[in-house]
Amino acid sequence: MYRYDTMDRTLVNERVAQFRDQTRRFLSGELNDDEFRHLRLRNGLYIQRHAPMLRVAIPYGLLSSGQLRTLGGIARRYDRGYGHFTTRQNIQYNWPKLEQVPDILAELAAVEMHAIQTSGNCIRNTTSDHLAGVTPNELEDPRPWCEIIRQWSTFHPEFTYLPRKFKIAVTGAPQDRAASLVHDVGVHIVRGPAGELGFEILAGGGLGRTPIIGQVVREFLPREHLLSYLEAVLRVYNLEGRRDNIHKARIKILVKSLGIEEFRRRVEAEWESIRGGALRVDEAEVARMRGFFDPPAYRKLVNTDPVAGKEAAFRAWYRYNTAEHKVPGYRAVYVSLKKPDVAPGDATDAQMELIADLSDRYSFGEVRVTHTQNLLLADVEQDKVFELWQTLDRARLATPNIGTLTDMICCPGLDFCSLANAGSIDVAKLINERFDDYDYLYDLGELDLKMSGCMNACGHHHVGNIGILGVDKGGEEWYQITIGGAAGADASLGSVIGPSVAKADVAETIARLLDVYVERRRPDERFLDTVRRLGVKPFKERVYAAPVAA
Amino acid sequence: MPRQLLRDGRIVVDDWTYFTEAANADAGNAEAAKIGLLGSAHPSNAIILTFDQWRSDVPRWRAARERLGVILSPADKVGQLAPDLSRFDLVGAEFPGPSEGRGYTQGRLLREQHGWRGELRATGYVRRDQVFFLARCGFNSFELPDSDLDAAAGAFSTFSSRYQPSNDIGLALKLQHR
Fold it and tell me: Residue ranges per domain, chain B?
């Protein structure tokens, strides 16, 4: 993984000093609330329902064991013993004290971490495929490019006060595990006319109030131009994006109002004037970055059958919670953070420390955060997977549900977030209680449920096969249900099935949707494909045919 | 009390007068500003116009004896000012509030695409916390509250290195290699 050099280290330390001074000025009254808000937001610090919320950057979701241990220690010493992993592959702490935040940042800096640009109207943490570098069919590991983007975007002098936040995702495999089509900019590693590697650039995707799938701005960009092209996109956005209405300020609204052709014309015109400049990424720099992501020292192994002769519980877990690895004898192992009685994405201090230890023992000391709010040990020897499972199971980190209905994406909701209209964690709990039969879950197969407590859509509900959106109805929490959304390479936005339902009826509503699917599906047809084939109508009819019994 | 500002890293007394201020001082009303009556209350003979003021009577300003400066509002296009740049001795960008960011791009475009070498001034909501970024976008003069002047003079070294090539004062950096 990327390791800081003196320059990186100095920069984060200088950022800690700067933020310490800004916090001091606020606490002493030199800065008013509004002035401090603009400063703290660029360092991941929100003022939330109960306390400040601090969001810490995990660049493209990659952590060393030492970093994860530090995150656990911070959860214990500055928070209430847990942290929440997010869809941007970051971690959030819900209960830090404002005056202690500079100390937290100093501890993070000591392990090459920071909270720079994890909130505010600037370029946020670049996200990527959690299987980068280990998935069999990727064209190229996207992480060196993520790091190149991370450095270029960090303290970018021109783009620190954008009209609105700006999110970039980079993928290198045909399957899109980073939801790149609903990002402000999606970068896909693709092959060019002569077989050379470069990028397809998309822009204008996003969720929130106005969900939009990103469109292609450039089909093929030679690799050395990545930063100049991104700079051109950002420059057009910074000048032309709307600043009069926060709900119309994302780049997706600009792309939509100009149309993709005109947007492309402006970007290309700007790019022409800067493409020959100093932003060119030369091969030496690419090679230097690649060096940080060289494969670990894999042993020469052959593929085995780790489930042979093992108990059913392990077999089920292995099937759902592990993924194919490109190196023979290895497997990528998900650590599920989706336990029935715990908020999706939450991990305790002890769990973080345990996973750090396990990564040292089994996976070259690295851990990844997935955008679906789980953790991943990417490089586990197949022969060790069983004993790893036993340890994870004891620590309640082996819920065998990855990719199934209860592997929900969920925002913190009304319990923590001051923007939310409705709770999401308790609804997740209700769904978990209702769908606790694993045979049924496995029979349903690949199915993702995504839930947001408000239309800001942090839980990506628009692109859930089943999406749940919390709405406020006369002071009560209600839930609007969508079906048919998808976040992958075939991304689509879900369709609303009808009027929103009360909290107590959410689980029954989902059960009715699933009944229609089970009755009408074709062999091996996914829920998503059945919805696409049948349309919303039969689902809607079933849900609203009879009131939910109290 | 004369306005102080930070220019090229030093705190100095501003030797420029805003046209609106001068007109108000002369005639005591904004009407004077509109018709462009300049009296003797601006000894510097160095007048800063808004881009709108410039555009409302270009021939007259072209012919004026005074040194001229112009301040772009966030929505003004640098490209529209570019043909007239040689008439000015100062160009600036206005930051109406702490979230405004278009001026950063305006600054870079002026320096990097239109070859502006003169004073580039940031005005409006400008604080010590922005000075580092503004300087990297090519600004070399900053109108700050008096209480921020000393701290801002030290803010150019907030970060000792940079990841991006850009305009620091008089310096075009290459993409960082190390």
Answer: 4-172
DSSP string, A108-177: HHHTT-B-TTSSSSSB---EE-TTTTTSTT-SS-SHHHHHHHHHHHTT-SSSSS-SS-B-EEEE-SSS--
> Tens of pLDDT along B56-109?
999 999 999 999 999 999 999 999 999 999 999 999 999 999 999 999 999 999
| Chain A CB contacts of B177 below 8 Å | 284-285
- Compare CB distances from A158 to B105, B132, B172 and report the shortest one's residue: B105
Extract long-range pairs of A263-267: CB within 8 Å, 24+ residues apart.
Answer: A263/A203, A263/A204, A263/A217, A263/A236, A264/A217, A264/A218, A266/A236, A266/A240, A267/A203, A267/A217, A267/A229, A267/A232, A267/A233, A267/A236
- Cβ distance B175 to A38 less than 8 Å, yes or no, reads no
Is B22 in contact with B38 (CB distance < 8 Å)? yes
Q: Which two tokens stand for residue A125?
A: 């943490």
Task: Name the 3-class secondary structure at A186.
Answer: strand
Asked if A235's CB is within 8 angstroms of B177's CB, the reply is no
| All domains in chain A, ordered by first residue | 6-110 (3.90.480.20), 134-291 (3.30.413.10), 312-394 (3.30.70.3340), 409-545 (3.30.413.10)
Write out the two tokens for A204. Answer: 């204008």
Does B105 contact A at CB distance below 8 Å? yes
Cα A366 to Cα A178, A323, A327, A503, A521: the distances in Å are 19, 16, 17, 39, 40
* Nearest chain A residue (CA) to B166: A157
A203 neighbors A263 (Cβ within 8 angstroms)? yes
Helix axis angle, A537-545 to A527-534, nearest 10°: 100
Q: Does A286 touch chain B (CB under 8 A)?
A: no
Question: Per CATH, is B4-172 categorized as 1.10.155?
Answer: no
Please report the ipTM that was assigned to this predicted complex: 0.92
**Chain B residues inside the 8 Å CB shell of A39:** 129
Contacts of B139 in chain A (CB under 8 A): none
Specify whether the CB–CB gap between A176 and A166 falls below 8 A.
no
- Coil/strand/helix, residue A41: helix
Query: What kind and span of H or E run contains A47?
Result: strand A45-47
**A508-545 per-position pLDDT tens digit:** 999 999 999 999 999 999 999 999 999 999 999 999 99
Per DSSP, which regions of A370-523 are E strands?
A: 375-381, 409-410, 449-452, 466-473, 476-483, 495-496, 501-502
pLDDT score of A411 = 85
Of A11, A151, A239, the CB nearest to B102: A239
The residue among B156, B159, B162 with the most chain A CBs within 10 A of its CB, best to mutate, is B159
Tell me if A129 sits within 8 A of A173, measured CB to CB: yes
Give dist(CA A470, CA A512) in Å, integer: 19
